[in-house]
């Protein structure tokens, strides 16, 4: 079992990042790949190795708490890694934990692939078992740029965010409802994803 990988991010797309360690590039699926950036900065990604007869994949997280929540979510019948990533992508584990503790099915069914039966199962399996999960905030701010550069980067960032939302399982019609509000703002891809998820989960 690979507990974590320390290395440099060399590639990012809407589904995964590639982290290079000693000449090897590891493909790591993450809830929101755009919280990472391609630079020469060494970083740690906490990983979970998922093995089934037809799949071998590495899932990666910013913190041990996020990784623990992922492991607890995939232990629930009806939630696979993709569903767990979509839940974690909201960037607010405390909201998810609170919904489970308060038996708030209405909130939980807003995630892609979570129906009433799965929401009930989540509450049944996880209520009272998530006290150690703490949300982690990753601030992602623009450096000084001229206005034109910010506009062109935020347009590209919005496109990337839309792709990432599709990968998480949100339907195009759902995404289209929140896009107009997102277009009013200049943000990074990571911030667009978080803002879109906040609106999709209302």
From TrEMBL:
Does the record carry Oxidoreductase as a key word? no
Any one GO molecular function term:
four-way junction DNA binding
Which compartment or compartments is the protein found in?
Cytoplasm
Question: Gene3D superfamilies per the record?
Answer: 5' to 3' exonuclease, C-terminal subdomain (1.10.150.20), DNA helicase RuvA subunit, C-terminal domain (1.10.8.10), Nucleic acid-binding proteins (2.40.50.140)
Q: What is its main location?
A: cytoplasm
Provide the alphabetized UniProt keywords: ATP-binding, Cytoplasm, DNA damage, DNA recombination, DNA repair, DNA-binding, Helicase, Hydrolase, Nucleotide-binding
Please state every residue range assigned to the domain named Helix-hairpin-helix DNA-binding motif class.
Answer: 71-90, 106-125
GO CC, alphabetical: cytoplasm; Holliday junction helicase complex; Holliday junction resolvase complex
Task: Give GO terms for biological process.
Answer: DNA recombination; DNA repair
Q: Which domain of life is it from?
A: Bacteria
Q: Where is this region: Domain III?
A: 153-202
Protein task: The RuvA-RuvB-RuvC complex processes Holliday junction (HJ) DNA during genetic recombination and DNA repair, while the RuvA-RuvB complex plays an important role in the rescue of blocked DNA replication forks via replication fork reversal (RFR). RuvA specifically binds to HJ cruciform DNA, conferring on it an open structure. The RuvB hexamer acts as an ATP-dependent pump, pulling dsDNA into and through the RuvAB complex. HJ branch migration allows RuvC to scan DNA until it finds its consensus sequence, where it cleaves and resolves the cruciform DNA.
The family this protein is said to belong to? Belongs to the RuvA family.
Quote the record's domain comment.
Has three domains with a flexible linker between the domains II and III and assumes an 'L' shape. Domain III is highly mobile and contacts RuvB.
Q: What HAMAP family does UniProt report for this protein, alphabetically? A: DNA_HJ_migration_RuvA (MF_00031)
Question: Subunit structure, per the record?
Answer: Homotetramer. Forms an RuvA(8)-RuvB(12)-Holliday junction (HJ) complex. HJ DNA is sandwiched between 2 RuvA tetramers; dsDNA enters through RuvA and exits via RuvB. An RuvB hexamer assembles on each DNA strand where it exits the tetramer. Each RuvB hexamer is contacted by two RuvA subunits (via domain III) on 2 adjacent RuvB subunits; this complex drives branch migration. In the full resolvosome a probable DNA-RuvA(4)-RuvB(12)-RuvC(2) complex forms which resolves the HJ.
Q: What is this protein called?
A: Holliday junction branch migration complex subunit RuvA
Organism classification, top ranks?
Bacteria, Bacillati, Bacillota, Bacilli, Bacillales
